[in-house]
Amino acid sequence: MDNYSSIFSCSSSSTSSASHLSLNMVNSQAYLEFQGDKANGFLGLMTNMGAPNSEANNNNGGVSQSKSFVVGTEINDEMKSSEKKKGEKKIRKPRFAFQTRSHVDILDDGYRWRKYGQKAVKNNKFPRSYYRCTHQGCNVKKQVQRLSKDEGIVVTTYEGMHSHPIEKSTDNFEHILNQMQIYTAF
DNA sequence: CGTGTTTGACCCGCGC
DNA sequence: GCGCGGGTCAAACACG
Fold first, then answer.
1. Which superkingdom heads the taxonomic lineage of this protein's source (predicted)?
2. Bases along strand B below 7 A from a protein CB
3. Residues A31, A68: contact at Cβ < 8 Å?
4. Could you tell me the distance in Å between the CA of residue A44 and the C1' of nucleotide C4?
5. What's the CA A156/C1' B7 distance, rounded, in angstroms?
6. In contact, A145 and A165? CB cutoff 8 Å
7. Of A60-69, A96-105, A136-145, A146-155, which has the strongest mean pLDDT?
8. Which of A76, A93, A119, A171 is the 20 to 30 Å CA partner of A85?
9. What is the pTM of this model?
10. The pLDDT value given to residue A11
11. How far is the CA of A98 from the C1' of C16 (A)?
């Protein structure tokens, strides 16, 4: 059971492969809403997703949050370090944006992240934080942004795919990714 | 002491 | 060409 990588296997392998994804998702703005319970995990999310009833109890510190996610692919993400591929494709890596209703922007998905930057975004009072997976050889990045309009909404954008198992035993994020696969498999 | 955060500088693409 | 906005680097710092 170490096929975490397969989750993101829908990367930009083909020129048109990404289009199907973005077309369906971006245009229709896939939007799911469920209520989680723990601020430090997507477990509640998954639980509610599969079984809307479940035990949505949880006594977290009173941090109830509803999560929704939008999946889309942003193209033209070529960086300066394009050692391989001489600009054959503009599509580099898919990005997954999660919209999370939470008061904390630190969402523990089971991976270990190292913050490597923070920038102020225009049209947004709150800064955007850049994180990178600390696993060696793993180039997965993620950025967390908070909407100035709704400071209760936190947008987490994942970029790239993990090629290693989750470090923590939270294994909840895996399920989410699995769900995402369904949508991105269109 | 190792690991992660802070923070300003730098880099690069893009529009004017 | 220049300025702007977004993304990254890296040195210094904080914390266990």
1. Eukaryota
2. 3-9, 11-14
3. yes
4. 41
5. 22
6. no
7. A136-145
8. A119
9. 0.60
10. 35
11. 31
